Amino acid sequence: MLRRIPRLLRSAVIVAVLVAVSASVYQSWATGAPGMNGWQQTQWGPLGPADRDLITKVRMANLWEGPTSQQAEQMATSADVREVGRKLAAEHAQLDEETRKVANQLGVPLPNGPSSQQMGWMAEISSKTGSDYDRTYVQRVREAHAQVLPVISEVRTTTQNDLVRQFAITSAEFVNRHHEYLESTGLVDYAALPHHSPGLFGGGTQMSDLLVPFLVFIAALLAAVALFWGLRNRATSGRRERITVPQPPMAQPATRFPEFAAMAAIPAPRAVGLDDTGPIPVLDDVPLATVTDSGSYQVSPDTATDSGGYGAVSDSGSHRAVSTSGSHRMPRSRRARHSMRR
């Protein structure tokens, strides 16, 4: 079924999953920069990425809630809200001093200013007046405490560092007490509070916090589209009609040549043995030819002798008879005259 999914869609799913995993690894590495894999050994025990994240988030909460509470102490219309602002400003100053002390002991770098989201809350609160200011201040600060309290509780139950555990207990006491202060005003809209989802989609709502959930959502969406595409193609192929293609007429079988039977091998001629112990026998009945003066040949009745030479030829012509010694050479003068006459 995977072969029926378009190659581009399969590649998009693979790329989205790889990017999501890479972003998650990068965030874990960036959060726990010191030490191997984000862990660092200290005299109070191992210090992990979650421990450093808690200290950082408490520090950032102090950086914006402290100044905003000081402002509320001056600008709030309700006396209760002004008193809440005074308490929160004083206690955030105490908590920030404890945060900087723990960070120095553990070697955790701290930010020097609030995040962009927190600065947006500060600007929103400052833009309000009258009762709107009171409600906006109480609601935004209560929402911020609701976001940091689950982080404190998680580290409190899972950390292996004794100093961080004690800091989490102290921070939780401050945050729970601040909840009581803010809720005592009667201005908290509980229905408007954000819901905390533990796990992957929990935590902050900044772009860096939402990167991994967004990429995971895209990967899951592409995988669902790929699965739907494969099932749709499978269902479509199952409804296809079978088309019967008529077979062509049977072709005439090719003419086969008759097989030739193997013929018996012809026996080779028997070798005739030669007797080289004596003279070659001479046939007596073979006539000899004689060249006449006119250039023609004349058969002579003489026969060759037993000595191997040829018998004398009639010398009535211009040519001398061949000697009985077997030599075929003629005298030089006779050869010259013979060649000229021819």
From TrEMBL:
Keywords, in A-Z order: Membrane, Transmembrane, Transmembrane helix
Biased composition (Basic residues): 329-342
Region (Disordered): 293-342
UniProt-listed InterPro entries: DUF4142 (IPR025419), Ferritin-like (IPR012347)
Biased composition (Polar residues): 293-306
DUF4142 domain sequence ranges: 50-182
Name by which UniProt lists this protein: DUF4142 domain-containing protein
Organism of origin: Pseudonocardia adelaidensis
UniProt lineage: Bacteria, Bacillati, Actinomycetota, Actinomycetes, Pseudonocardiales
